[in-house]
């Protein structure tokens, strides 16, 4: 018999907030003439894991990115640009609040840095909407590492089958699914509402 959903875990960038890092990559392409492939190779493939797992300082990250992309500018100005690209996705806070009012526990599972997360949280009051937040750089793991999801399971009082995990990247959903969690691939808030209806934990009001 299928377990009743009791807790919902949300990704941050791309679900609760917009895809700030992806928008920032597009900004670099337009502003500095680098290619999308270069931004992916440098930001995502080379520096992401170390910085977002808490194993690299912010200055090391930015100096490495600027050097590898051959960009000459103040990295603190670029950081400000990047953070501005993170904005709440329309309707998400209301949706999370509705779930909490119905008695569901809500959690945040995010790849974020020790430097950016506090600023984003202060700006957007993100943690107010969650019973607990799990941030990659604070824990030392990042998605899609299986150990990150196992850490979450050990620290919340629910079986994997009682959890619904929402992320905008399939590669981040696969480990959760293998551990027994229910999963939803996010595209828009409206499509998410329909998916939540299918799980029987949300009812849209037309």
Features:
alpha/beta, 206 residues, five-stranded parallel sheet
| Overall average residue pLDDT | 96
Helical residue percent band? 40-55%
Q: Please describe the biggest sheet, giving its number of strands, its sense, and whether it closes into a barrel.
A: 5 strands, parallel
How widely separated are the two ends?
Answer: 32 Å
Give a count of the beta strands, DSSP E runs of length 2 or more: 5
Total count of helical runs of at least 4 residues: 10
Order of helices and strands: EHHHHHEHEHHEHEH
Strand order within the widest beta sheet:
3-2-1-4-5
Question: How much of the polypeptide forms β-strand, as a percent range?
Answer: 5-15%
- Specify the structural class: alpha/beta
Radius of gyration: 18 Å
Which regions have little confidence, pLDDT < 50, spanning 5+ residues? none
Shape call: globular
């Amino acid at each position: 018999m299928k377990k009743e959903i009791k807790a919902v875990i949300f990704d941050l960038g791309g679900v609760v907030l917009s895809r700030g890092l992806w928008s920032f990559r597009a900004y670099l392409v337009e502003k500095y003439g680098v290619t999308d492939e270069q931004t992916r190779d440098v930001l995502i493939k080379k520096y992401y894991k170390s910085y977002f797992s808490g194993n690299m300082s912010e200055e090391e990250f930015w100096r490495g990115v600027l050097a590898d992309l051959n960009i000459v500018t103040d990295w603190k100005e670029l950081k400000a640009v990047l953070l501005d690209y993170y904005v709440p996705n329309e309707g998400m806070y209301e949706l999370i609040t509705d779930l909490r009012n119905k008695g569901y526990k809500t959690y945040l599972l995010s790849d974020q840095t020790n430097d950016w997360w506090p600023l984003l949280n202060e700006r957007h009051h993100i943690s107010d909407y969650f019973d607990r937040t799990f941030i990659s750089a604070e824990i030392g793991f990042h998605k899609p590492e299986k150990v990150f999801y196992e850490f979450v399971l050990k620290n919340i009082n629910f079986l994997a089958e009682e959890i619904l995990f929402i992320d905008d990247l399939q590669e981040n959903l696969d480990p959760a699914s293998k551990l027994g969690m229910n999963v939803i691939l996010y595209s828009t808030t409206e499509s998410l509402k329909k998916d939540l209806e299918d799980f029987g934990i949300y009812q849209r009001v037309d």
